[in-house]
Amino acid sequence: MIYTGKSLSVSLLDDGFAELVFDAEGSVNKFDRQTVTELDEATQALLAKGDVKGLVVRSAKSAFIVGADITEFTGLFAMDDEEVLQWVANTSQVFDRFEDLPFPTIAAVNGFALGGGCEMALACDMRIADTTASIGLPEVKLGLMPGFGGTVRLPRLIGADNALEWMTTGRDRKGAKALAEGAVDAVVAPETLVEGALSMVKDAVDGKFDWQARRAVKKAPLQLNKNEAMMSFSTAQAMVFAQAGKHYPAPHKMVETVQKASVLDREGALKLENKGFVELAKTDAAKAQIGIFLADQLVKSKGKKQAKAATKQSKLNAVLGAGIMGGGIAYQSAVKGTPVIMKDINQGALDLGLSEAAKILGKGMKRGKVDATKMAQTLNAITPTLEYSTLKDADLVIEAVVENPKVKGIVLKEVEENVADDAIICSNTSTISINQLAESLDKPERFCGMHFFNPVHRMPLVEIIRGEKTSEETINAVVAATLKMGKTPIVVNDCPGFLVNRVLFPYFAGFSKLLIDGADFVAVDKVMEKIFGWPMGPAYLMDVVGIDTGDHAADVMAAGIPERMARLDNDPVTLFYKEERLGQKNGKGFYNYGVDKRGKPSKTPAEEAYALMAPHVAEKTDFEADDIIARLMIPMANEAIRCLEEGIVDSAAEADMALLYGLGFPPFRGGIFRWIETIGLANFVAMADKYAELGPIYQISDGVREMAAAGKSYFA
């Protein structure tokens, strides 16, 4: 044995060859501080050995190296700039010293080789991948750029164009694609990976492969003439701006860094990379995106634990109420392999539900994501029925009828009379109290809310709502079923609107109040989309949700939380509803919807909407962008804080993920609590106090005022 550490070891093989094996104590290999130190120590040990001919680098696990240890980033990035720079420079120099070993090296890549794992492979002279391999540099998804030499080595291996596409999108490559682009030298079956790696490194020693020339290319400036460089980098800049826009600095910084480094050798290029990495590490976008990653890990870990504790597995699901939503839920169950019964009281609704599933599959076939076999299997797994008797064997029944408490209560009672004693019953409701609906049932302990978001096949979140009498066994089983359906479950406690809609409707109320005070809805949408970063502004979002749905939900929220969410006089949403301007569903709302001359969907501000509002709102006023953002976001933030303080949601991280997955909260802002913390709690309190006279939704809780005074964090 040449070297033994906790995360890796180096041993001598036959004929003077050696292997460096990553085998961390946890379930995966990752580059934490300890592993980086051990890599450097192993490199020194190999140098000291003196008679090593060549080295194979491999993993003893099912994945090569999944990347850096992101849990260390928060602490590292809190250090001052010089300290962060010193850390990343020292770490990248460890990779340099490894790359400079006086014999050929080869990475044998299995499973994931991402981020630092990919950079480890790039530091080797050769790379061989097996058919399970996925290789890539996804740092952009954390608001960062590669920091261990990725921006230097990859462009010199596969060309600047390809390398920038890898890095600015963060998409990984399977072995065959990586081979075609020149990032790996061979792809083999998993069982021959180590044997193939050893054979290739022996060929390098025998002079059949010029490893020294390959290494020299990685250490030299990029081989681009002026015209090639200009074309390459201007194209990359245009692509990044089109795809990432101005809110995500990381891809822009990557293009700039690779361009400036293209005329430099390894040492000069790495200094630029180190500097760019530190600049990005200090951005709000990086803090937000790293926060999302850690919050996502928390949500996934919690879901897995709850699913593992489930004592009942759902082998047959049922959906009550077909149509668009019911059809979407049935599709989601079927496409993920759980047969589903779809029941309704009329054949037309069943036909609509089946056509919804077929339409989703048809789009998948057009894009090449679904084949005929998958389409047939999915549709065959949906059983349409008009009879309650077919529900007797269902393990999980999801009621998805009209959003009316009386109708839902009647249907739920009928369901309970027709299912097995241990079947779990859920209601897909967006606002109606689970405790109220549970009153219809004899066994409320087996009942909870299961709130899907529309369109079901696209929206990742399912809000699982625990009622006062819901058992933990029921929650665990529904979490397990949600995960099986390919969705992200977040468990919340019952209250009007639950979590997502409870925080959304104060945002809509702030929007309505802004219109009443004379704002132009087009201007508001533009600010919230272009500056704040929402995928849709509030007027457009209300049209998509449905004006009728919005008006009904506002009634529910007003009844449930009258002290803050009482209906506004002259609310434009109510005015539109009374005039049957329902939004996208009937082509007219704040905007008019149709098709343009090329047959593409069109959206134009509706003159009729302005005319309807005119007698009920103030004269047109041009509000500053900061005012618009504050007047919409303070109510949302305040309600999210109250949900956390009341125990509706367990953590700020889960609330952030719920809004990200359920509403499309801008990822570069990290979620509602991350946004509050980016502003600073004291600054948020001051901002809210500035608008407090606008009404109760702008008035902050004593809890946040105390936290701000004490300098506390929601993520401590």
From TrEMBL:
Entry's Gene Ontology cellular component terms: fatty acid beta-oxidation multienzyme complex
3-hydroxyacyl-CoA dehydrogenase C-terminal domain sequence ranges: 497-593, 628-711
GO terms of molecular function: 3-hydroxybutyryl-CoA epimerase activity; delta(3)-delta(2)-enoyl-CoA isomerase activity; enoyl-CoA hydratase activity; long-chain (3S)-3-hydroxyacyl-CoA dehydrogenase (NAD+) activity; NAD+ binding
Key words of the record: Fatty acid metabolism, Isomerase, Lipid degradation, Lipid metabolism, Lyase, Multifunctional enzyme, NAD, Oxidoreductase
Tree of life domain: Bacteria
Alphabetical list of CDD domains matching this protein: crotonase-like
Lyase in keyword set: yes
3-hydroxyacyl-CoA dehydrogenase NAD binding domain span: 318-495
GO biological process: fatty acid beta-oxidation
Reactions the enzyme catalyzes: a (3S)-3-hydroxyacyl-CoA + NAD(+) = a 3-oxoacyl-CoA + NADH + H(+)
EC number: 4.2.1.17
Pathway assignment: Lipid metabolism; fatty acid beta-oxidation
PANTHER family: TRIFUNCTIONAL ENZYME SUBUNIT ALPHA, TRIFUNCTIONAL ENZYME SUBUNIT ALPHA, MITOCHONDRIAL
Family per record: In the central section; belongs to the 3-hydroxyacyl-CoA dehydrogenase family.
Name of the protein: enoyl-CoA hydratase
Organism expressing this protein natively: Alteromonas australica
